Amino acid sequence: MTALSASPLTGKPVALDAASFTLDDVGLTIGPARILSGITKRFEANRIYGLIGPNGAGKTSLVRILARHHEPSEGRVHYAGRPLGEWAARAFACSVAHMPQQLPSSQQLCVKDLVALGRYPWHGPFRRKSSADQAAIEEAMRVADVADFADRLVDTLSGGERQRVWVAMMVAQAGRFLLLDEPTAALDIAHQAHLLELLRGVARARRLGIVMAFHDINIAATFCDEVLAMKNGKLIASGTPAEIITPEILSAVYDIDMSTMPHPTTGRPIGFIR
Ligand SMILES: Nc1ncnc2c1ncn2[C@@H]1O[C@H](COP(=O)(O)OP(=O)(O)OP(=O)(O)O)[C@@H](O)[C@H]1O
Protein backbone atom coordinates (compact mmCIF):
# COMPACT_ATOMS: atom_id res chain seq x y z
CA MET A 1 0.00 0.00 0.00
CA THR A 2 1.30 3.49 -0.86
CA ALA A 3 1.40 5.94 2.09
CA LEU A 4 -0.07 9.37 1.30
CA SER A 5 0.45 12.83 2.76
CA ALA A 6 -0.88 16.31 1.97
CA SER A 7 1.38 18.17 -0.47
CA PRO A 8 2.95 21.29 1.01
CA LEU A 9 0.96 24.32 -0.14
CA THR A 10 -1.43 22.58 -2.59
CA GLY A 11 -2.89 20.29 0.07
CA LYS A 12 -3.37 17.55 -2.55
CA PRO A 13 -2.39 14.00 -1.56
CA VAL A 14 1.04 12.87 -2.71
CA ALA A 15 2.76 9.51 -2.27
CA LEU A 16 5.30 9.84 0.55
CA ASP A 17 7.72 7.48 -1.12
CA ALA A 18 7.66 9.63 -4.27
CA ALA A 19 9.86 12.15 -2.44
CA SER A 20 13.18 10.96 -3.83
CA PHE A 21 16.19 12.75 -5.29
CA THR A 22 17.59 11.56 -8.60
CA LEU A 23 20.97 12.75 -9.85
CA ASP A 24 21.93 12.04 -13.42
CA ASP A 25 25.59 12.59 -14.41
CA VAL A 26 25.91 15.60 -12.11
CA GLY A 27 29.06 17.71 -12.14
CA LEU A 28 30.11 20.86 -10.30
CA THR A 29 32.84 23.28 -11.32
CA ILE A 30 33.55 26.49 -9.40
CA GLY A 31 36.05 28.78 -11.09
CA PRO A 32 38.98 26.58 -12.10
CA ALA A 33 38.07 23.88 -9.52
CA ARG A 34 36.44 20.67 -10.76
CA ILE A 35 34.63 19.64 -7.58
CA LEU A 36 32.18 16.89 -8.59
CA SER A 37 31.83 14.82 -11.74
CA GLY A 38 29.68 12.02 -13.11
CA ILE A 39 27.46 11.58 -10.04
CA THR A 40 24.47 9.38 -10.87
CA LYS A 41 22.39 8.27 -7.90
CA ARG A 42 18.86 7.98 -6.54
CA PHE A 43 18.14 8.84 -2.88
CA GLU A 44 14.87 7.25 -1.77
CA ALA A 45 12.50 8.23 1.02
CA ASN A 46 12.42 5.95 4.08
CA ARG A 47 16.14 5.20 3.75
CA ILE A 48 19.27 6.54 5.49
CA TYR A 49 22.35 7.29 3.38
CA GLY A 50 25.87 8.04 4.63
CA LEU A 51 28.48 9.81 2.50
CA ILE A 52 32.06 8.90 3.41
CA GLY A 53 35.42 9.81 1.90
CA PRO A 54 38.57 11.77 2.67
CA ASN A 55 38.86 15.54 3.12
CA GLY A 56 37.99 17.29 -0.11
CA ALA A 57 36.21 14.25 -1.60
CA GLY A 58 33.11 16.34 -2.35
CA LYS A 59 30.71 15.21 0.42
CA THR A 60 29.70 18.74 1.47
CA SER A 61 29.41 19.86 -2.15
CA LEU A 62 27.04 16.99 -2.93
CA VAL A 63 24.88 17.76 0.13
CA ARG A 64 24.85 21.44 -0.91
CA ILE A 65 23.62 20.50 -4.39
CA LEU A 66 20.72 18.55 -2.87
CA ALA A 67 19.96 21.52 -0.60
CA ARG A 68 20.03 23.87 -3.64
CA HIS A 69 22.97 25.88 -2.29
CA HIS A 70 25.01 24.92 -5.36
CA GLU A 71 23.59 24.66 -8.86
CA PRO A 72 25.18 21.79 -10.77
CA SER A 73 27.32 22.81 -13.74
CA GLU A 74 26.34 19.62 -15.58
CA GLY A 75 23.71 16.94 -15.40
CA ARG A 76 20.23 16.91 -13.93
CA VAL A 77 18.84 16.74 -10.39
CA HIS A 78 15.16 16.01 -9.74
CA TYR A 79 13.31 15.99 -6.44
CA ALA A 80 9.94 14.22 -6.25
CA GLY A 81 9.89 14.02 -10.02
CA ARG A 82 10.51 17.75 -10.71
CA PRO A 83 13.76 19.45 -11.70
CA LEU A 84 15.28 20.94 -8.58
CA GLY A 85 15.42 24.42 -10.08
CA GLU A 86 11.64 24.42 -10.70
CA TRP A 87 10.72 24.08 -7.04
CA ALA A 88 9.38 27.25 -5.42
CA ALA A 89 11.58 28.09 -2.43
CA ARG A 90 8.78 27.73 0.13
CA ALA A 91 7.47 24.41 -1.19
CA PHE A 92 11.02 23.04 -1.25
CA ALA A 93 11.63 24.23 2.32
CA CYS A 94 8.43 22.47 3.44
CA SER A 95 9.83 19.22 2.07
CA VAL A 96 13.62 19.30 2.49
CA ALA A 97 15.56 20.41 5.60
CA HIS A 98 19.31 21.06 5.64
CA MET A 99 21.75 21.24 8.56
CA PRO A 100 25.09 22.71 7.40
CA GLN A 101 28.53 21.70 8.66
CA GLN A 102 29.13 25.08 10.31
CA LEU A 103 26.02 26.08 12.21
CA PRO A 104 25.49 29.79 11.69
CA SER A 105 25.21 32.09 14.71
CA SER A 106 21.63 32.25 15.93
CA GLN A 107 22.10 35.93 16.86
CA GLN A 108 19.84 36.64 19.83
CA LEU A 109 17.36 33.77 19.26
CA CYS A 110 16.34 31.52 22.11
CA VAL A 111 15.89 27.78 21.55
CA LYS A 112 12.12 27.79 21.11
CA ASP A 113 12.33 30.66 18.60
CA LEU A 114 14.94 28.85 16.50
CA VAL A 115 12.88 25.65 16.52
CA ALA A 116 9.83 27.75 15.54
CA LEU A 117 11.72 28.90 12.41
CA GLY A 118 11.26 25.33 11.17
CA ARG A 119 7.55 26.14 10.76
CA TYR A 120 8.18 29.35 8.81
CA PRO A 121 7.91 27.75 5.34
CA TRP A 122 4.48 26.41 6.34
CA HIS A 123 2.87 29.60 7.67
CA GLY A 124 4.93 32.13 5.65
CA PRO A 125 5.34 35.83 6.42
CA PHE A 126 1.65 36.78 6.35
CA ARG A 127 0.10 34.25 8.70
CA ARG A 128 0.64 33.78 12.41
CA LYS A 129 1.65 30.42 13.84
CA SER A 130 -1.38 28.16 14.17
CA SER A 131 -2.04 25.77 17.04
CA ALA A 132 -0.82 22.99 14.70
CA ASP A 133 2.47 24.89 14.22
CA GLN A 134 2.80 25.32 17.99
CA ALA A 135 2.09 21.62 18.57
CA ALA A 136 4.75 20.68 15.98
CA ILE A 137 7.30 22.95 17.72
CA GLU A 138 6.61 21.45 21.14
CA GLU A 139 6.68 17.90 19.80
CA ALA A 140 10.01 18.56 18.02
CA MET A 141 11.56 19.98 21.21
CA ARG A 142 10.38 16.95 23.14
CA VAL A 143 11.66 14.47 20.54
CA ALA A 144 15.09 16.15 20.36
CA ASP A 145 15.22 16.54 24.15
CA VAL A 146 15.76 20.30 24.15
CA ALA A 147 12.59 21.39 25.98
CA ASP A 148 14.51 21.86 29.24
CA PHE A 149 16.43 24.78 27.77
CA ALA A 150 13.65 26.21 25.58
CA ASP A 151 14.26 29.76 26.86
CA ARG A 152 18.08 29.76 26.68
CA LEU A 153 19.88 31.76 23.99
CA VAL A 154 21.08 29.28 21.35
CA ASP A 155 24.53 30.86 21.19
CA THR A 156 25.08 30.11 24.90
CA LEU A 157 24.61 26.34 24.41
CA SER A 158 27.39 23.77 24.00
CA GLY A 159 28.16 22.52 20.48
CA GLY A 160 26.27 19.29 21.07
CA GLU A 161 23.22 21.01 22.58
CA ARG A 162 23.15 23.40 19.62
CA GLN A 163 23.20 20.46 17.18
CA ARG A 164 20.19 18.94 18.97
CA VAL A 165 18.34 22.26 18.68
CA TRP A 166 18.98 22.28 14.94
CA VAL A 167 17.68 18.73 14.71
CA ALA A 168 14.57 19.90 16.60
CA MET A 169 14.14 22.67 14.04
CA MET A 170 14.39 20.10 11.22
CA VAL A 171 11.84 17.86 12.96
CA ALA A 172 9.47 20.84 13.37
CA GLN A 173 9.90 21.57 9.67
CA ALA A 174 8.19 18.21 9.03
CA GLY A 175 9.71 17.66 5.59
CA ARG A 176 10.26 14.43 3.72
CA PHE A 177 14.06 14.62 3.46
CA LEU A 178 16.78 15.64 5.91
CA LEU A 179 20.25 16.63 4.68
CA LEU A 180 22.94 16.79 7.37
CA ASP A 181 26.62 17.61 6.95
CA GLU A 182 28.72 15.94 9.66
CA PRO A 183 25.94 16.13 12.26
CA THR A 184 28.02 14.43 14.93
CA ALA A 185 31.26 16.40 14.48
CA ALA A 186 30.98 18.31 17.78
CA LEU A 187 29.62 15.44 19.85
CA ASP A 188 31.14 13.03 22.35
CA ILE A 189 30.57 9.35 21.67
CA ALA A 190 27.42 9.02 23.80
CA HIS A 191 25.82 12.08 22.25
CA GLN A 192 26.77 10.85 18.76
CA ALA A 193 24.85 7.64 19.41
CA HIS A 194 21.95 9.53 20.98
CA LEU A 195 21.62 11.99 18.10
CA LEU A 196 21.81 9.28 15.43
CA GLU A 197 19.29 7.08 17.29
CA LEU A 198 17.05 10.12 17.44
CA LEU A 199 17.38 10.76 13.70
CA ARG A 200 16.83 7.09 12.91
CA GLY A 201 13.72 6.99 15.11
CA VAL A 202 12.25 10.08 13.43
CA ALA A 203 13.15 8.75 9.98
CA ARG A 204 11.48 5.38 10.59
CA ALA A 205 8.38 6.90 12.24
CA ARG A 206 7.84 9.45 9.46
CA ARG A 207 9.29 7.46 6.54
CA LEU A 208 11.89 10.19 5.86
CA GLY A 209 14.90 9.99 3.63
CA ILE A 210 18.16 11.15 5.25
CA VAL A 211 21.46 11.95 3.56
CA MET A 212 24.38 12.58 5.96
CA ALA A 213 28.09 13.20 5.45
CA PHE A 214 30.45 11.51 7.92
CA HIS A 215 34.14 11.29 8.72
CA ASP A 216 33.63 8.31 10.98
CA ILE A 217 33.13 5.28 8.71
CA ASN A 218 32.00 3.12 11.60
CA ILE A 219 29.26 5.53 12.59
CA ALA A 220 28.13 5.53 8.95
CA ALA A 221 28.19 1.71 8.87
CA THR A 222 26.21 1.50 12.11
CA PHE A 223 23.44 3.98 11.36
CA CYS A 224 22.99 3.98 7.59
CA ASP A 225 21.08 1.66 5.28
CA GLU A 226 23.43 2.57 2.46
CA VAL A 227 26.96 3.98 2.37
CA LEU A 228 28.36 6.05 -0.51
CA ALA A 229 32.15 6.19 -0.85
CA MET A 230 33.46 9.35 -2.53
CA LYS A 231 36.93 10.35 -3.68
CA ASN A 232 38.18 13.25 -5.83
CA GLY A 233 34.63 14.42 -6.54
CA LYS A 234 33.45 11.03 -7.80
CA LEU A 235 31.14 8.41 -6.39
CA ILE A 236 33.43 5.37 -6.18
CA ALA A 237 30.92 2.85 -4.82
CA SER A 238 27.59 2.66 -3.03
CA GLY A 239 25.81 -0.19 -1.32
CA THR A 240 24.98 -1.70 2.03
CA PRO A 241 27.56 -1.19 4.80
CA ALA A 242 28.72 -4.79 4.26
CA GLU A 243 29.30 -4.10 0.57
CA ILE A 244 31.22 -0.83 1.08
CA ILE A 245 33.09 -1.22 4.38
CA THR A 246 35.61 -3.67 2.87
CA PRO A 247 39.43 -3.54 3.00
CA GLU A 248 39.59 -3.05 -0.79
CA ILE A 249 37.17 -0.13 -1.01
CA LEU A 250 38.35 1.63 2.18
CA SER A 251 42.04 1.28 1.23
CA ALA A 252 41.34 2.67 -2.24
CA VAL A 253 39.21 5.55 -0.99
CA TYR A 254 41.48 6.65 1.89
CA ASP A 255 44.85 5.71 0.30
CA ILE A 256 45.93 3.80 3.39
CA ASP A 257 45.87 0.07 4.20
CA MET A 258 42.68 -0.75 6.04
CA SER A 259 41.13 -3.89 7.50
CA THR A 260 37.59 -4.69 8.55
CA MET A 261 35.84 -7.05 10.95
CA PRO A 262 32.25 -7.60 12.06
CA HIS A 263 31.11 -5.67 15.14
CA PRO A 264 30.88 -8.21 17.99
CA THR A 265 27.24 -7.44 18.79
CA THR A 266 25.64 -5.87 15.70
CA GLY A 267 27.57 -7.86 13.10
CA ARG A 268 27.91 -4.69 11.03
CA PRO A 269 31.37 -4.12 9.55
CA ILE A 270 33.98 -2.00 11.34
CA GLY A 271 36.91 -0.52 9.45
CA PHE A 272 40.28 0.35 10.97
CA ILE A 273 43.80 1.22 9.85
CA ARG A 274 45.94 -1.90 9.47
N1 LIG B 1 33.39 27.48 -3.41
C1 LIG B 1 34.45 26.75 -3.73
N2 LIG B 1 35.40 27.23 -4.56
C2 LIG B 1 36.48 26.47 -4.90
N3 LIG B 1 36.70 25.23 -4.44
C3 LIG B 1 35.78 24.71 -3.61
C4 LIG B 1 34.62 25.43 -3.21
N4 LIG B 1 33.90 24.63 -2.38
C5 LIG B 1 34.59 23.48 -2.27
N5 LIG B 1 35.72 23.54 -2.99
C6 LIG B 1 36.71 22.46 -3.12
O1 LIG B 1 36.01 21.31 -3.54
C7 LIG B 1 36.57 20.14 -2.95
C8 LIG B 1 35.49 19.35 -2.24
O2 LIG B 1 35.10 20.07 -1.09
P1 LIG B 1 34.00 19.53 -0.09
O3 LIG B 1 33.89 20.51 1.03
O4 LIG B 1 32.78 19.21 -0.85
O5 LIG B 1 34.68 18.18 0.39
P2 LIG B 1 34.35 17.27 1.67
O6 LIG B 1 34.42 15.86 1.21
O7 LIG B 1 33.09 17.71 2.33
O8 LIG B 1 35.60 17.60 2.58
P3 LIG B 1 35.77 17.63 4.19
O9 LIG B 1 35.67 16.20 4.64
O10 LIG B 1 37.16 18.17 4.36
O11 LIG B 1 34.71 18.52 4.77
C9 LIG B 1 37.68 20.64 -2.03
O12 LIG B 1 38.91 20.50 -2.70
C10 LIG B 1 37.34 22.08 -1.80
O13 LIG B 1 38.51 22.86 -1.57
3D structure, described in words:
Helix 5 (131-143) runs antiparallel to helix 6. The strands form four sheets. A six-stranded mixed beta sheet has the order 8-9-10-5-11-12, with helices on both faces. Strands 4-3-6-7 form a four-stranded antiparallel beta sheet, covered by helices on one side. The chain has helices spanning 59-66, 89-95, 111-117, 120-123, 131-143, 159-173, 189-206, 217-223, 241-244, 247-254; strands at residues 4-6, 13-15, 21-30, 33-43, 48-52, 74-79, 82-83, 96-99, 177-181, 209-213, 226-231, 234-239, 258-262, 269-273. Residues 7-16 have low confidence and may be disordered. The chain is α/β, with parallel strands linked by helices and 274 residues long. The chain has a domain at 18-108 and 177-273: 3-Layer(aba) Sandwich (Rossmann fold), CATH 3.40.50.300. The protein is built from ten helices and 14 strands. It starts with a strand and ends with a strand. It is globular. Adenosine-5'-triphosphate is lined by residues 30-31, 33, 35, 53, 55-61, 213. Adenosine-5'-triphosphate binds next to strand 4 and helix 1. InterPro entries: AAA+_ATPase, ABC_transporter-like_ATP-bd, ABC_transporter-like_CS, P-loop_NTPase. This is ABC transporter ATP-binding protein. Part of the ABC transporter complex HmuTUV involved in hemin import. Responsible for energy coupling to the transport system.
List the helices and strands and how they pair.
Blueprint: E1 4-6, E2 13-15, E3 21-30, E4 33-43, E5 48-52, H1 59-66, E6 74-79, E7 82-83, H2 89-95, E8 96-99, H3 111-117, H4 120-123, H5 131-143, H6 159-173, E9 177-181, H7 189-206, E10 209-213, H8 217-223, E11 226-231, E12 234-239, H9 241-244, H10 247-254, E13 258-262, E14 269-273
Parallel strand pairs: 5-10, 5-11, 8-9, 9-10
Antiparallel strand pairs: 1-2, 3-4, 3-6, 6-7, 11-12, 13-14
Helix pairs in contact: 3-6, 5-6, 6-7
The structure holds adenosine-5'-triphosphate (ATP).
